[in-house]
């Protein structure tokens, strides 16, 4: 193309990159101030769908052992029904590339941090419009950010439980000490 067309293409690319960076920054800030609940995750999916312009997005969060979903969310425009199998092994083991399923291509982005598997971000496209490289990169980055957030939430929950147990042990020790003193006092009085 002409120089004007090259400049216009470069401008479009830079504008899209700017939108992606803004989205990822907003995502990290969103979960900095509040935990990732189902309403926030549903809004995230709808915002992400508008940005990447895919037919359908679905988020499936899995139980601790990663064999069944505990939360399945999809975008408002999503026509496909959520997984009814309640068995996540097939999704966990499937490659991320667009696999043909019925009349669509399915892309799976794992929500994984270290050795913990939190779920899958799933994108469905029409066979004639597969995901571009920038769409795949953005969806992979969102999946990684969600895995990080869920991992941090899990660590925070564990820290709170540990602090609660330590406090209970301290109170139990103080009660035990107070009871021992009272019983010793009573024993002295009876003698």
Explain what the structure shows.
Helix content is 57%, strand content 19%. The protein is α+β, with helices and mostly antiparallel strands and 191 residues long. Helix 1 packs parallel to helix 4 (133-190). The chain is elongated, with a radius of gyration of 25 Å. The model has no long low-confidence stretch (mean pLDDT 82).
Quick take:
With 191 residues, the protein is of the alpha+beta class. It has helices at residues 3-33, 38-52, 89-93, 133-190; strands at residues 56-62, 69-74, 99-101, 104-113, 116-125.
Key structural traits:
57% helix; 191 residues; five-stranded antiparallel β-sheet; single chain
Q: How many β-strand runs? A: 5
Strand content: 15-25%
Mean pLDDT over all positions: 82
Low-confidence stretches: none
Separation of the first and last Cα atoms: 106 Å
Coarse shape: elongated
Q: Which range best describes the helical content: under 10%, 10-25%, 25-40%, 40-55%, 55-70% or over 70%?
A: 55-70%
Structure classification:
alpha+beta
The description of the largest β-sheet is: 5 strands, antiparallel
Number of helices: 4
Q: Order of strands across the biggest sheet?
A: 2-1-5-4-3
Task: Using the CA coordinates, give the radius of gyration.
Answer: 25 Å
Order of SSEs, N→C? HHEEHEEEH
């Amino acid at each position: 193309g002409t120089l004007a067309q090259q400049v216009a293409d470069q401008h479009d690319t830079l504008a899209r990159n700017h939108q992606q960076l803004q989205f990822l920054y907003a995502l990290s800030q969103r979960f900095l101030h509040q935990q990732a609940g189902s309403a926030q995750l549903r809004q995230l999916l709808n915002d992400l769908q508008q940005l990447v312009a895919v037919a359908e997005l679905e988020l499936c969060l899995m139980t601790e052992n990663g064999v069944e979903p505990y939360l399945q969310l999809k975008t408002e425009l999503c026509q496909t029904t959520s997984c009814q199998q309640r068995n996540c092994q097939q999704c966990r083991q499937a490659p991320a590339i667009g696999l043909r399923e019925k009349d669509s291509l399915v892309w799976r982005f794992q929500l994984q941090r270290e050795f913990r598997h939190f779920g899958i971000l799933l994108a469905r496209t029409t066979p004639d419009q597969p995901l571009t490289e920038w769409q795949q990169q953005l969806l992979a980055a969102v999946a990684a950010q969600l895995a990080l957030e869920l991992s941090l939430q899990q660590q925070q929950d564990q820290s709170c439980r540990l602090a609660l147990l330590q406090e209970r042990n301290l109170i139990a020790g103080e009660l035990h000490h107070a009871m021992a003193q009272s019983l010793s006092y009573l024993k002295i009085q009876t003698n």
